[in-house]
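Q: My labmate handed me this sequence with no annotations at all. I'd like to see what the chain might look like in three dimensions before we decide whether it's worth expressing. Could you predict it?
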Amino acid sequence: MPDVVTCAVADGIADLRLNRPEKLNALNDELFAELLAAVEGLHGDPALRAVVLSGSGQAFCAGLDLSLFASFAAEADAGRRPIADAGDPGSGERAGGRGQAVVRSLLTMPVPVIAAVTGPAIGGGLQIALGADLRFVRPDAKLAMREITFGITPDMGGTQLLPRLVGYERAMDLVVTGRFISGQDAFAMGLASRVCEDPLAEALEVARQVAGNSPTAVRLSKELLRRSTSVPLDDGLAAELQVLAHNMGSPNQVEAVHAFFEKRAPAFADPEDWIPPGG
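A: Here is what I predict for the chain of 279 residues:
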């Protein structure tokens, strides 16, 4: 059987794809397990420069496989059954499932993650896309938070990440109605970073641009931006200065300046000695 997730790394760019095209890349237990393993496996690669996340075929991800939804209604204890993780069935509480683990791992990836969205990105599929730093979408893509249709709430970060992108009211609208929006609509409301006819090609081109910059500066920039959503402004400003002091004069920063003035392509080293802001 082919892998339901593929990951090929070349020139520092990870081409990560959901690979159940015959099921519109719907999420089942196997795909969750392989996706989490693939994302976590990229974290420790010092040569990694960017990640492009997409779906094989005509869809990004159509959400949870319908067979999983059907099983919820058949279970006497469906209210305690984690959607994507066995968790602890005796605890009486939902443990953080593999869905959240995937999204967390994407959010904390040390390099930028670009989701290329073609076709449907629904429910859990849209929530996975929310874990990316950038979302490039086709104008006719179909996006929706459909959990409400099955009487459940988003549990892969959707209720926390969506309002940060589109605001409380728009997030409320999308979550409690379950309505579909187009890629063009998503771009207009700030859910998508770019709208383009070929999201994967554009995402790979942007990834190449990122890969041409100092990997140390890119990683530190992502960490500063990520922390901006959770730390007070004064702490964030202090972290900027700390990072600047640490990075100025480092080998990759010096190489960037030399390459600029010498009008040549820089030859950066894989980052080994970099510290996160406040770390």
